[in-house]
TrEMBL record:
It comes from the Bacteria. This is Uroporphyrin-III C-methyltransferase. InterPro entries: YeaO-like.
Amino acid sequence: MSIKLQRIYEKSNDSGYRVLVDLVWPRGISKKDAELDDWAKEVTPTPELRKWFNHDPEKFADFKSAYKKELLNDDEKLKKLAELQKLQKQQTLILLYAAKDKEHNHALVLKEVLESKLPK
C-alpha cells in the first residue's frame, strides 16, 4: 500500500490506518475528532532533539540525521517501526502530525524510514 502524511488539523477523505506521530497531543483537537487508530509515541523524536530542532528549517538536515539515528538505534522504536511497516503492507498508513511546516518536520523523516529496509 502506501504511506501518506497529513496535518491533523486538515480534513481528509482518505481512508487508512490513522496514526498520530507526535509526542504531545495537538491543541484544539478532541480525541473523537482525531479518529485515531493509534498514537505512536514510541517513534517520536526525543524531547531534547525536538526542542533543539524547534522547527528551524536551517537545522533540518542535522535534525533528520539525528532523528534517523534515534529511530534505528532504539529497540522500542524499531519494534514500533516494524509494526507500522507491516500495517502499511495491508492498508494505507496515514501519519498525522501537528507541525505547520509541511517541508521540515519529523513525520517526513519517519515516512522515509518506514519506506526503507529496517535493521534486524
